[in-house]
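SEQUENCE-TO-STRUCTURE ENTRY
===========================
Question of interest: how does this chain fold, as expressed in backbone structure tokens?
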Amino acid sequence: MQRLVILTLAASTLFLPALQAQYTGFAVTDDGRLFFSSQLSTSGADSSIKVYRVSSDGVSLFASGGGVDLFGPHAISPLTSGDGSITGYGINSPCRTGSCGFFALPHTTFRLQGAAIEAISFDSLSISRNGRFLLGTTFDVKVRLIELPSQATREFPQFLRTAGPQPVDNSGDALLLDARETNEPLLFVPSGQDPRPVPGAGLALSGVLSPNGDRIAYERQTTAGYELVLTGPQGA
């Protein structure tokens, strides 16, 4: 029996009450340790975005970008394997020179703990629940899949992007969105095979993939608002 656990995070008195609570980038282990990023600051701390951890011991600081103002660097986008043996977060540094690329895009380096790869540059990064696969998007609009034990890499065609915060399963299957499509943008990519549309998933905006790859949950826009749909890779 599968269960959906909804975690509600209340603002701790640790944070300054004058600041509005903002939490992003949730990641949780199987035993309930929760990681999130927030611009909330403890008394006397700087205002950069940091990653916090919630455990049985309460709320604690997990990572800081070392910034001293709103411009960063920031610690963002925490990630964790199911057992918590691999954890990580992104360091997002503002680009103030042309060396970072066109349009002064920010540069994000993910730092990993417990993995063979200690640092890697991606715009976004996800890890499978068993800690075997990394799936990330690059600044040049590409998606790369990395198998951590062998560090073998697969690169997908340009203009595909990861579908959401959990887009890779324990076998290396991936859930992607095609930025060029509007009718069938949600793609399921079995390990080692070509991407194929998820039947019936028109107008999908984001999605997540179950750890064993047999369930897909995605959000789509309708004339009445939004719908959350539970389906499988074959659209069942």
Notes: The chain has no helices and 19 strands.
